[in-house]
Amino acid sequence: MTQRFRLASGGLVDRSRPCAFSFDGRDLQGYAGDTLASALLANGVHLVGRSFKYHRRRGIFGAGAEEPNALVQLETGARTEPNTRATQIELYDGLTAASQNRWPTLDRDAGAIYNVFSRLLPAGFYYKTFMWPRSWWLRYEHVIRHAAGMGQSPRAPDPDHYAHRHAHCDVLVAGGGPAGLTAALAAARTGARVIVANDDFEWGGALLREAVEVDGRPGLEWIRNAVAELATYPDVTLLARSTVFGYFDHNLLGVVQAVHPRASHAPRQRLWKVRAKQVVLAGGAIERPLVFADNDLPGVMLASAVSTYVNRYGVAPGQRAVVFANNDSAYATALDLHRAGVVIAAVVDPRLDPKGELPTSARAAGIEILAGHAVARARGGKHVESVLAGPVDNGFVGAAQRELACDLLCVSGGWSPAVHLFSQSKGRLRYDERITAFVPDVSAQAERSAGAARGLFSLNRCLADGAEAGAAAAEAAGCRRISAAVPAALEVADDPMLPLWDIQSDATRTSKRFVDLQNDVTARDVALGVREGYRSVEHLKRYTTLGMGTDQGKTSNINGLAILAALIDAQIPDVGTTTFRPPYTAVTLGAIAGPEIGAHFDPVRLSPMHDTHEVAGARFINAGLWRRPMVYPRAGESDPDATNREVLAVRRKAGIVDVSTLGKIDVQGRDAATFLERVYVNRWRNLAVGKARYGLMLREDGLIFDDGTTTRIGEDRFHMTTTTANAGRVMSHLEYYLQVHWPELDVRLTSVSDHWAAVALAGPESRNVLAALTMADVGTAALPYMGYCEAIIAGVPARIFRISFSGELAYEINVPADYGAALWNALLDAGRAYELGVYGTEAMGVLRIEKGHIAGMEIDGRTTPDDVGLGGMVAADKDCIGKPLLARPALRAEDRKQLVGLVPVDGRSAIPKGAQLVVDPQRAAPNPIIGHVTSTCYSPTLIRPIALALLQRGRARHGEKLYATSPLSNTVVHVEVVPHVFYDPKGERLRA
Amino acid sequence: MLSIPCPYCGPRDVTEFSYGGDGNVRPPTGPDAASEAAWSAYVYLRANPRGVHEELWQHSAGCRRWIRVTRNTLTHEMHGSAPARASAAAS
After folding, report:
1. Domain regions of chain B by residue span
2. For helices A329-339 and A357-364, what crossing angle results, to 10°?
3. Number of cross-chain residue pairs from A and B with Cβ atoms under 8 Å apart
């Protein structure tokens, strides 16, 4: 395999390590040290994609993060990644990539038809055309979306893994070029903890493309030494292949690190969240293109990119080049090409008399300079073949034009400092007339920019500026500044640049002069947007999509602003820039998600008896973070049948359910009873030691917050329980009042939810089961309903609460969590003689609906104690949280919804979940809704469906017949309103 | 991501904290204690200042203390923090 465009020598590629790769099915070869882009160019492949909108041929344009065109689909199958920049993909053996947005092939792309009909697709076309008939939009959209293309996302789960890392440092340096490296060295020498992130796999930044010397030695040698010295400091972390993509509040920076593609077992990418005391932004500058007709032809490239390919990769991207530049820096490219043996047809420069050092050297090398000229058009079918250049006056090229044959056109419209991270940090920009670009002005966070990132384009000044920034940053982070020699380079005298924005000629007025290559936005689109009134830069951006591609307008930003400014007769600084937002370059969702996927997405809480439930064949349900047994079906048994069996076992014999998930709070202190009186609506001072009481908590607005049983286990000690769902919120709520409003109370709160395993033992046989396991007297005299005692059960110290959620004689037994499974098994063993069963949350729900107990569906944040029939609990003679607003007229209104029971009139029809209650289901909308079903189930005890509902004036409606309608399931059930306690309304069973 | 200075633990990421709202609201006392309007204002009305704001946070994934943080809502600049308790007792 030949690499026709590879130079005989030079560059940082390792010619002893060839890498085979494939692009669009062609087998090619490059070298270790190549990027995909340099390897393609070495093989003469420029054409890498079709443009977003017009499907025009596009070639490799840049050499780094700024690349707008060379977006490729990397790899295939589950590992495929769309829209990756070929200019940043480190080549490895076996790499596979494909071009995007073309069909059937890149060279013969059917979508190229859009270029022919481009007049139908002006800026904002999606607001104007394809609007009729309206109903057809979905069909248009399908075609448009298919045509406007980026890559394909993978269909299969990502087989790779990703890591997250949190780090702290004194100084984070973003950038591994001359300014970044001198900054890192200066900071490291003070002993500071330094992290240096470089988005490239090679250190050196701009030095990699420039044939220059530092301290009289080759630049590459200086880089090697600088990196070697940094590696000797134990507190310096060198991160190559690592892009600082976001600058967030309080000096938190996001860095995405690509692990070397060949590293096995390593995560594919690592996301660093770095909290830095000080930050040095040394991300360099981005070269701007020039805007002229057909400036998007393959073979048109940024001058700096061409230098990179020649000097760093040893690749000549053409054989005969024209350089078109309005500044001195591109003359270095002309000289680089010249040295590499590439013919320079001419340097086209709009300045009348360029006489800086580089132009002078070029002239001395025999390179023709067309001063006062500009390129009006690039010509060529599939690739640039020639350019038309002529004398230029104020951006207009006259009719006298010369055609210069070439296969490479290097363009440079000046340089824009990469102010992205600075702007993300909320720093304020300033327009610098000298370089026609925005530069950092006023910092908002603890950062400073250095080198080209703040508009210093001379290597010598970058080195000095970086050293000063690094030393100052370390000092600001609390390290002692030390003096050290600053590396130096030769100053190169240069002439000022000449701004040149939209280059027109008579023949190219209607031609496409691209401003944004990635999103296919032309100078005419900008003009159209302005004509249609989009004069604000933010509006223009969204209307024309200028700068909205994955490159976020890295190369197009300033040109677009300048063209807009000229059109509205304003100055560039008055137009301003659009907002820079993270990320600087795209970050994969995999890196953002990191390891927190699948089973690690959320923590899982398991009860101490979880394994026992699994062995028993439980089907689990997620309750918040908890996995709770829902039902324990036997072989061949349906879930509803199993639930009914579990319910009946409790009603007839006995059953146990795991209630370890309930929130448990240990409340201690001299003022514990006072505290409870303030947080619950009912009284607590008068609760005797050894007694439990049901409590109701309100929010400050008077609505029910939570409920649960709280037991006085000592004079100054209470055991509070909360609902499973609100355990955390209740704890936080109690801590809030104690710490913020009542610091004078002597109360200590401890969450003990995880310390106690809890089992509810319920049913008429439950006392017999319990008695079989303990010597303690659990008779109803010693342990009456709502009583409490401590006892040894099955050899384990236990707390026994005689409380009941099921309506049966019942006990809630708490043991230290590690004894949970032992208690559970002991209960099963002892219960065998009494036909004790186990039951899950479904049966527990049925039991409580039969009994008319409220749960989360009834206390949904909209109900008052009176609404759910517990108005009598609110003690009249004391204050509590929520009581003042409970007296509001709206919460006392007569037509409030009240808790009722419902039964189907036919005794058979299930009452649909979430059904709305109406008087007449036939009535046309709006049909007044007077209530809604909150909880519904089939009651095996009563052998019919039952439900709880909240119904306007419900307590006065017992006996009325209404309709429960559920438009979701298209069902209407005729129901009768009944009292909400279906089972044992007198409470005889639970007191037995 | 904000860094919140916990007076007990030092600066910590905001992800360790829960927001507790305006730190200056107090339940009505004295003659206002019986005023429905005063209670309504206490529960529902909040200023939304552009600039310095004293607010409560709980270091819920840390020391569990409620703290009083002075933050600039515009710039996120932190002007310090104190135990919520100390201020409450002083007021």
Report:
1. 3-90
2. 30
3. 61
